[in-house]
């Protein structure tokens, strides 16, 4: 290409490397700090190498009740995992079924159903947090796994994506299935489900991250330590009772909180990007 | 599209889970908010009286609401513009070095997966008033840094944490947009003698404007709602309400303060703001950029 300038490429690489390092810096520092003994940490200078405590703080967090929370971090991680999986699997299931009905069936009030569902695209749960609490209380679901997960399923992004995808499928697929005598369930399981694999993977990554990182709703609805999630419990370690938080534990807890979704995003990067770009189209 | 026509019950069975969830956990709370915003509860929560728009006038007249509105405006504007500018710069660079671009993409997208609350803690550690790494650098520069006491500094802390987290989202979209711009356009312009700077502003930037507008709306919504965790873990809205945004105030008044009428009015006002944003988005972004 005649307009290529090698000098600019060098500048681009330099900027990108600086950018990538700058974005990693907070996590690198947190990892380093989590391996220091409290004494070293509070002396004022954070050494730029691993400390003498190794994984001790992680072991403390994972095996002993976390300060101010009451259960060990493994329990918090398990609860976060259940919430994230519940949201991801729940959303995928109800969204696929609803999109299937909207695209492949004609029934009365179809348009009405469509609009009812798509109105939810506009308002995140944070807007209606107080009345949602009221509804969940009325249903007797406060401080429970269903109460934690169900209200977060009330959004249409996944339904929208599956609808878009189903509309791109050639009509002949369905003709052929009908000629072969396949009913709606056969068609769904044998044809639609395998074809949707990529979309399912893409949405799963997005929804898992969304679920794992929920903060306000768990904070509001969960009151017992047995159901507490990891991300919402972070604050227990950052409240400064005597001026400075117990940073050796707070950094370790933060690393535990960010590790699972970051690993998921890196391993499933291809699907993540597809999912992200598709859901917002 | 051909359809299954002879099945009457099946579509309703398929729709049922989604419909039930949406009705119970979306429309029921939304209508409760609408209704409660028009009523005043008595002090014991036993009865309520119709109040017309009294809740709205009370909320809109209160100084703390004005402050929260102002904080939200400063916060979301800074986050949106900061995260978009940074993402655009890095995406243009990554697009230049196409072959290595994928490596950089991996290195730059992972903050998306970090919880906003965790992002807050990471930056709070770096900027801790007594042992923060960056605090020492700031002290050397003669800046007296303590976000626990200084409202402006607290705001800067949450803005930085939110930009750090949101940049990766914008980066993915800008990079996809840039890769969708036909090389022939840029080559033609180069043949006409336009340098890289000029090519960017006359071709790339205008072609990215629909995506930029879309991102502006998405970033604003992110800053409005998803940053609750960032603010709660770091500053809890303080000091002195300096980082209390609209959603934070809604949480404090409704969940902590149990002011049902007032918080419902705030909910309705927020719904109107988000609804307006979405409408503007649908109106102006008619044609989205091609990604594939």
UniProtKB/TrEMBL annotation, chain A:
InterPro entries: MetI-like, MetI-like_sf. PROSITE patterns: ABC_TM1. It is a multi-pass membrane protein. One of its GO terms (cellular component) is plasma membrane. The chain crosses the membrane at residues 12-33, 81-105, 112-136, 148-166, 187-210, 247-268. GO terms for biological process: transmembrane transport. Coiled coil: none annotated. It is found in: Cell inner membrane; Cell membrane. Belongs to the binding-protein-dependent transport system permease family. PANTHER family: ABC TRANSPORTER PERMEASE PROTEIN MG189-RELATED-RELATED, SN-GLYCEROL-3-PHOSPHATE TRANSPORT SYSTEM PERMEASE PROTEIN UGPE. Part of the ABC transporter complex UgpBAEC involved in sn-glycerol-3-phosphate (G3P) import. Probably responsible for the translocation of the substrate across the membrane. This is sn-glycerol-3-phosphate transport system permease protein UgpE.
TrEMBL record, chain B:
It is a multi-pass membrane protein. Its main location: membrane. GO terms for biological process: transmembrane transport. Belongs to the binding-protein-dependent transport system permease family. UgpAE subfamily. It holds the Pfam family BPD_transp_1. One of its GO terms (cellular component) is plasma membrane. PANTHER family: BLL4140 PROTEIN (PTHR43227), SN-GLYCEROL-3-PHOSPHATE TRANSPORT SYSTEM PERMEASE PROTEIN UGPA (PTHR43227:SF9). Keywords: Cell inner membrane, Cell membrane, Membrane, Transmembrane, Transmembrane helix, Transport. It is found in: Cell inner membrane; Cell membrane. Residues 69-281 form the ABC transmembrane type-1 domain. The chain crosses the membrane at residues 12-31, 68-94, 106-126, 154-178, 199-225, 264-285. This is sn-glycerol-3-phosphate transport system permease protein UgpA. The keyword Nucleus does not apply. It comes from the Bacteria. The complex is composed of two ATP-binding proteins (UgpC), two transmembrane proteins (UgpA and UgpE) and a solute-binding protein (UgpB).
